[in-house]
Amino acid sequence: MTIIPVSPADVPARPWLAADAGRWATISVPLWARPLGPALLLFGSVVAAMVFSPACPACSVTAPCTTDWLDAVGTMAFLPHLLWLFLLPELAVVSAPLLLLWMTEPSTWQGGAGEKIADTVVVVALCWGWAAMATRLRTRRKARSAVHDAAGGITASAPAPGGPRVRQGLIRWVAGALACTVAAVLIAGIVLDDRADDRKAAAATAQDARVVAVDNDDYTLTVRLPDGTRHRFDVQGSYRNGSTVRVLVHGDWMRLASEPYGDPTDRQVVALLCAALGLTLLGWGLLAHRRDAALRRGPVPVLRVLTRRNHGRTEIFAADDTDALHPVLNYQPHDGQWTSLRQGLLYGAPCGGAALVLASATEAGQWLVEVNISAIRRGAAADSYARTAEREAAPSIVTEAQVQQALAAMAPASGPVRRQADAATRAVAALTLLISGAVVALMVASRWWTLILWVPLLCSGAVACLQVISWRITADAFGLRIRRMWHGHRVPWADVTGVVFTGKNELTISCRTGIDDVRVGRVAVPRLDRLLRRPTVGERAAVEISAMVLEPGLRPTDTV
Description:
Layout (H helix, E strand, L loop, with lengths): L1 E3 L9 E2 L2 H8 L10 H17 L16 H8 L1 H10 L1 H15 L9 H39 L3 E2 L7 H39 L2 E11 L4 E5 L5 E5 L9 E7 L2 E4 L8 H33 L2 E11 L2 E5 L11 E3 L10 E6 L9 E5 L5 E5 L5 E2 H15 L6 H10 L7 E4 L2 H24 L8 H16 L1 E4 L3 E5 L4 E5 L3 E6 L4 E6 L6 E5 L3 H7 L4 H14 L10
Parallel strand pairs: 2-9
Antiparallel strand pairs: 1-14, 3-9, 4-5, 4-7, 5-6, 7-8, 9-10, 9-12, 10-11, 11-15, 12-13, 13-14, 16-17, 17-18, 18-19, 20-21, 21-22
Helix pairs in contact: 1-6, 2-4, 2-6, 4-5, 4-8, 5-6, 7-8, 10-14, 11-12
Protein name: PH domain-containing protein
Keywords: Membrane, Transmembrane, Transmembrane helix
């Protein structure tokens, strides 16, 4: 933080009253304009279009398969667009029309019925995303206008906020520049190699060779030259055994006349991925620089507020909310540990992606300046953030009251009691696994090395899904029979001391001293349970087993 010699009386500012703060809080992005929906639809339709697209083109001397930069750039542009839907709506509203323009290319619609349907959904998703981002930006403008109205036109120059955001912007600029440089080097290398091949081809002699082997899995073609020798080429197109192809020969150098530049897809994909990442980082840094510069360039709206630190985040309250009951907004600051309620001056117009400066008064009469380094959340997010932090920090969310209710309501079990994920939860987990498998198959079939980019996400998602599908706990007269993803356990009742169900939907059987606890792992899909507004099966299992531990009469009398 930076200490500034400012007194509240030195800055003419209106208080941000609860009525004005309430009006600002009601200006929110509608549910349909959230980025998750159009992003999921776009991702699924693009993957489907790639699956249904023709695998290999027919290459010939009259229609050679050259390096298609337009198609490659258009296809790879969907990746940064997906990122921009979440991070940079200012760029997403520009990229969406460009992608729609690329989709009007006639060759895009020459596939089968499956590809045409997928391409139609791609167009729908792009239009939805563009409308959602335009609505998101319009909501930001309304929020800024509401703050200007609350400030009554009073503006002031914001104090210098320090360097954390500046350092963040510099890191983004440097990383983006490096990624773009790598992309430029790779693209220049591909173009220079193509020009060198053209010079050799101009001095080469043409020979007709017979195709003797075609490997569509490895994309290789073996031909027999007129002198009887054989040569294998890496190819992009489709060929038939026994057909004749034209080969250009210049000393030890040779290539197919139907594929002038070989297959530079690997380098092309890496180059375009680097370019997409670089442009995203540069755009992110540029917009962050513009927002920070707006605070330093001239007067900005200033409001008197109350503020405090809660669970590592700064909360902003209306000036007349002296009991700190309703936080208006919250964000993550760059430093500071104070927790008491203070007076403050808020510089800037809070909205999505905005930069804010907060000058807060200390007990010693000094004013400290801080700047937000995270996105701004609405007031309700502060409470949910605190509840989430407390829930994840707590060892168990199964309360004594829940166990006592179960003790009163449960009847002695006549047979073994089994608890596992219900059909809906297992269906969602299985569908997620199938979709992930289809994505993996597509990557392996096209270019296996691209799978490396997705390995961490795919592995963690697959393990979580398998845990949800495979777990089962069976209670019988002997104890608990626990089946996990890879193996099972049997724990007698004498060793069980309780069940821990955490806020991360993980279940653990606690055992007496000297016996290792048995971790069942993830047992539910929390978003599905919240959508259906029901307690999770893991929570029910924890409550019932805890009741059986406390009251042996509720345990089953039969053994599996």
